[in-house]
């Protein structure tokens, strides 16, 4: 993998471990020569990952809609900042630039981005690895709801294999670099 798109909170959250995991992720990416693709903010966990990649000599590409790129939020030290017209264009651009995706802890925007790339994988739009950095068990409720949706017949069990999950950034990136897309069943059952 030459580039990973990170989805993460624009806040730091309530636990110091979230920030520490973001910093560790950025350091590992820079050490391994993996380019960071992300939303372009200098705030929160997003900013922490970007700062660490840059501080360790790595490349960082931010993608931000023009309406959000005021001087208060945009990171001023990026390798490249790409301005786009909309959130839809932002996500499409990040998707095209990335070889894989990792969700760090975050809020509604992070969830939306994560579920979009999971859905795109499920229906065959891409075969890129998707990772959950499960710091302090942050994503346990998400993993539980996905398991519940499998038990209730809304998601095929094979689709669990499109998610790589670890609380250790180094292990997660290694899992993603060895990722082989599962032989997907049809999302829709015959006769429905």
UniProtKB/TrEMBL annotation:
Q: Which branch of life, at top level? A: Bacteria
Keyword ATP-binding in the entry? The reply is no
* InterPro entries named among the record's database cross-references: LOG, LOG_fam
User: Looking at the UniProt record for this protein, which Gene Ontology cellular component terms does it annotate, in alphabetical order?
Assistant: cytosol
E.C. number: 3.2.2.n1
Entry keywords, A to Z: Cytokinin biosynthesis, Hydrolase
A biological process (GO) of this protein is: cytokinin biosynthetic process
Q: Which GO molecular function terms does the record list?
A: hydrolase activity, hydrolyzing N-glycosyl compounds
Fetch the Gene3D superfamilies from UniProt: 3.40.50.450
Keyword Glycoprotein assigned to the entry: answer is no
Q: Which family does it belong to?
A: Belongs to the LOG family.
User: NCBIfam families, per this entry?
Assistant: Rossman fold protein, TIGR00730 family (TIGR00730)
Report what the protein is called.
Cytokinin riboside 5'-monophosphate phosphoribohydrolase
């Amino acid at each position: 993998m030459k580039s990973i798109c990170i989805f993460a909170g624009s806040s730091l959250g309530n636990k110091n471990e979230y920030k520490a995991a973001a910093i560790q992720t950025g350091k590992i990416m820079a050490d391994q020569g993996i380019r960071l693709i992300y939303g372009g903010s200098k705030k929160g966990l997003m900013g922490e990952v970007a700062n660490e990649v840059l501080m360790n000599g790595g490349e960082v590409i931010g993608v931000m809609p023009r309406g959000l790129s005021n001087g208060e939020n945009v990171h001023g030290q990026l390798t490249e900042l790409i301005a786009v017209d909309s959130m839809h264009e932002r996500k499409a651009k990040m998707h095209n630039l990335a070889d894989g995706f990792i969700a760090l802890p975050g809020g509604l925007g992070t969830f939306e981005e994560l579920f979009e790339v999971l859905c795109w994988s499920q229906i065959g739009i891409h075969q890129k690895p998707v990772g959950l950095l499960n710091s302090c068990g942050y994503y346990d409720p998400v993993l539980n709801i996905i398991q519940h949706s499998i038990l209730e017949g809304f998601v095929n069990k094979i689709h669990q294999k499109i998610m790589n999950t670890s609380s250790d950034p180094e292990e997660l990136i290694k899992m993603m670099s060895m990722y082989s897309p599962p032989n997907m069943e049809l999302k829709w059952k015959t006769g429905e």
